[in-house]
Amino acid sequence: MPIAPLETGMKAPNFRLKDQNGREINLSDFKGKQSLVLIFYPGDLTPGCTMQLCAVRDDWSKFRANEIMVFGVNHADGESHKKFIKKYTFPFPLLIDAGKKVSARYGATKPMFKATVIKRSVVGIDKQGIIRYLKLGMPKNSEILKAMQEKK
Q1: CATH code for 25-150?
Q2: Which of 65, 78, 79, 108 could form a Cys-Cys staple with 103, CB 3.0–4.6 A?
Q3: Angle CA(28)–CA(144)–CA(55) in degrees, nearest 5?
Q4: Is 54 a residue of the active site?
């Protein structure tokens, strides 16, 4: 059954995923407290993903100043995520979407040959759980931050 495409202004699908340390992260835990940015990316320690997540790391103070929590999301396991975090000193968690179910719910998957892969996607969710930013690819952090600030 196909999943309806997400759009800005829609309620974000709830999710429950573990981070690299096994801590469970639920979207509902942030409601009324903090905005989120989910960065769905294809692979740990790959050139494009490293560039994208390092850019967020370098702008981390801007995300924090705007009360935005960032999570990287892909299918790799906790050990892979820990290596990626350690090598590049990411100040944000990486979530494990082993079955790619959350990625699929957020429209961040695509078929490739006989597999399903995660496509690079960024989703900004406000404190009320509403999608305020949605874009494929590697948008500039300034664009993400501007969109999230305008919708507060």
Answers
A1: 3.40.30.10
A2: 108
A3: 105
A4: no
